Amino acid sequence: MEHKVTIKESSSLYSKILNTILFSMLIFFVIMLIARYRKREALPAGFRGETSEDFNESKDIDVRFSDVAGNAEAKDNMQDIIEFLKDPDKFKKFGVKIPKGIILYGPPGTGKTLLAKALAGEAGAAFIATSGSNFVEKYVGVGASRIRKLFGEARKKAPAIIFIDEIDAVGGKRGAEGSGNSEDAKTLNQLLVEMDGFKDDENIIVVAATNRLDMLDDALIRAGRFDRHVMVGLPDLNSRYEILKVHAKNKPLSEEVDLFQVAKQTVYMSGADLSGVMNEAAIYAIKEDNLKITLKHIDKAINKIVAGDEKKDRSNISDLEKKITAYHEAGHTVIAKLLNKESVPKVSIIPTTKGAAGYTLINPNEKMFQTKTEILNKISGLLGGRAAEEIIFGKQNITGGASNDLQRATKMALTLITKYGMSEKLGLVSFDDREISLQNELILNETKQILDKIYKKTLDYILLNKDKLEAVAQSLLNSEIINENELDILLAI
Ligand code: ADP
Ligand code: ZN
C-alpha cells in the first residue's frame, strides 16, 4: 500500500517537473514561431532565401507512366523527351533540337501534374514544382527574382523537370483587358529570358499546365519556348475504366463490382473525380464495417461526387417546394429518356449539400461528333426542367432553380454559333474564347433566338407527353428517388 503511494507521489512530482519543462518549451516555441513569422512578413518574399518553401523539389520520383491511365497521346508526345534526358548525347550527335518547354492544357483534374511527375520519374530527372500564382507579387522585382532562383535551382539539380502549374497566372496575354500589370510583365519577361538562355547541355525541360491555352501570351508559345502543346482532355470510356482500375488496385472490391459498368456511369468525370469516387466508396465501406467495397458504396460515392452529400435535415422544405422540384426533374427526365434516348440511372428530389434541390443523373451517348440536331436536343434537355415548371405551375410561378440549367444551355448555344459555325445568321465562323462576348449584339440576339426556339419546342414536347411527366413526378413525390428500371416501366419503354 505504502509503496504504491510513494510511487504515486514521486510520479506526480516527476510529472510536475516534466510538465513545467514541457510548458516552458512550448511557450518558447510559440515565441520563436511568432518571431519567425513576423520576420518573414516584414521582408518581401524574394529576400526570405528559403527555396524549399517557394518550390517543391524532389529527387527520386517514384511515379511512372504506368500510374497515369489513359492519356495515351500525351504519353506518346513525351516519349522522346524521356530518351533525351536519359541520353542527351545521342540526340546532340544528330543535331536534334529537343523542345525547351511543353504546355499541357485541359480541364482540371485530368492528370497534367501527374504526367509531369511521371515524366521526371521515367527520365530519372529531378522534379521541381511550383505554381504561376507564386510569382504574382506586389513587391517590385520579386516575381522576376523568383523565376531566376527557380531556374538556378534547376541548373544545380539537372537533369531536371521544372513544372509550373497555372502558367496563365504569369503568362496571360499582356495588356489583355487593359490591366497590363507591369510587375507581371517583368516576371513573364524573366521567364522568357531564362528559356531563351538555355544552353544545349543544360538538361532542363519546363513543363507548364493551364486550363486555357488560348489565354496565354503569344510570346510564350512561340517556337523555341513552349512550342509543344499537348492536350490532356477528359477521359473517354476506356480511359475511365483504366483510371478506375488504377485507383482500385489497393482496395478490396466485392465480386459484383464491374468497373467497366462504373466507367459507363461516370461520363464527364475527370481522373481526379474518379479517384475521388473510389476513395469515397472505400470510406463508406469502412463506415459500415464492411470487408469489401460493394456496388452500393460506389453508387453512393458517385452521387456524392456529382451532387454532394444528401442533406440529413429536410424539415425546412415545404410540400410545394418538393412538388416543384419533382416536376422540374421529371421535365429533364422526359426529354433525356424519350427525345434524346439517353440513359438516366437516377433521378432524385433529395436536396444535397452542394445546394441542389434535386438532380437527374444523365449518361449521354458518347460520340466523337454530335450533329446539330443532337446538340439542339441536348439544350432541350437542359430547358426541360423550367418548361415542366411553367406547364404545371404557370408562367408566373417559375423558379430560379433552373439557373444552372440555363447557364449550361446558354453556353451550348453560344458554342454552337461561335465555334461550330452552325448558325445561319453568323455563318461559318469559329472564334477563340477571347473573341466571344455576349456584349456583342449579333451574338446575343442569335443566342437568344436559338434558346427561345428550343424552349418552345421543349414546351410542346412535354405537353405532348404530359401523362409521362405526371407519372415520373408523382413517383418522385412518393419515393424521392427513381432508378433506371423503374423509369423504364413508368415511361413504358
Ligand atoms: P491536373 O494537374 O490536371 O489538375 P492532377 O494531375 O493533379 O490533375 O490529378 C489529380 C489526381 O487525380 C491525381 O493525383 C490522380 O490521383 C488522379 N488522376 C488524374 N488523372 C489520372 C489518370 N489519367 N490516371 C490515374 N489517376 C489520375
Ligand atoms: Zn434542372
From TrEMBL:
Cofactor note: Binds 1 zinc ion per subunit.
Swiss-Prot/TrEMBL keywords: ATP-binding, Cell membrane, Hydrolase, Membrane, Metal-binding, Metalloprotease, Nucleotide-binding, Protease, Transmembrane, Transmembrane helix, Zinc
Entry binding sites for ATP: G106, P107, P108, G109, T110, G111, K112, T113
GO biological process, one term: protein catabolic process
Active site (catalytic residues): E329
Gene Ontology molecular-function annotations: ATP binding; ATP hydrolysis activity; ATP-dependent peptidase activity; metalloendopeptidase activity; zinc ion binding
Membrane-spanning ranges: 17-35
EC top class named in words: hydrolase
Binding-site positions, Zn(2+): H328, H332, D405
Cofactor(s) this protein requires: Zn(2+)
E.C. code: 3.4.24.-
Similarity comment: In the central section; belongs to the AAA ATPase family.
Oligomer status and interactors: Homohexamer.
Record's protein name: ATP-dependent zinc metalloprotease FtsH
Species assigned in the record: Clostridium thailandense
Gene name, Swiss-Prot/TrEMBL: ftsH
